[in-house]
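S.,

As promised, the adenosine-5'-diphosphate run. Input:
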Amino acid sequence: MASYTVNSSIMIDFAGVHKHYTTAHGEVRALDGVSLAIEAGEYVAVQGHSGSGKSTLLALAGGLALPTTGKVMVGGEEISAMASAARARFRAQHVGFVFQMFHLLPYLNIVDNVRIASRDPHAPQSLANAEALLDRFGLHDRRTHRPSQLSAGERQRVAMARALLNGPKLLLADEPTGNLDPENARVVLDAIDAFHTEGGTVLLVTHHAEAAERAARIVSLRSGQVLGSPAVSTT
Ligand code: ADP
Ligand code: MG
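Predicted complex:
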């Protein structure tokens, strides 16, 4: 099975990226000429109004979606040129995702929700790793519970454990504190900080000033373009 190494000093490199959708109401330019480089080990916050393209930016950075035109490189690999199976493999190895709505599977208990991120979910090591992460997030005695039995904060801690299971180099967090009380928000942000301190690269979409303050750089989007950088049009 092919595996990709991540060894570039630039973790994320968008070159002239457009993402357009054709809808009943016409063409939507979710990203409209984005060129952006994020170095390995950077902590970048992404801000912008609803609909400005923040989630699209993260989806492309993680290989969940492909650009309409332009090139997306992650860790020196051109993920926008990979077939979907290769992108999925790359993602599992190197990228962790956290979302505002947690995206846990309702029919699995929480230890299985974490293990499912493993490349080999049935390996004993994946169970040990999942349990260690749940322990770290204070959820060890909840491991046989279903997500519906947990509070929002607990669910997001499960999602953090899942995101970290494979030891990713890149963490993509899309409004991860959007549904949390301040105390749970702090737990999640502290975990993101710890990931960054250990050398990880973070791209965090957030509306919270306190969260954005933890980042070393803020990228602002408006109408699919990065403010303050010349839009590169390839169309
Ligand atoms: P944000 O996360 O900043 O709120 P998004 O990246 O989700 O913004 O969306 C950017 C724009 O692209 C919005 O106008 C949104 O409606 C549109 N969009 C996103 N996904 C789709 C889709 N699958 N089909 C059509 N339009 C979409
Ligand atoms: Mg969004």
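The radius of gyration is 18 Å. The chain has one domain: 10-228.

- D.
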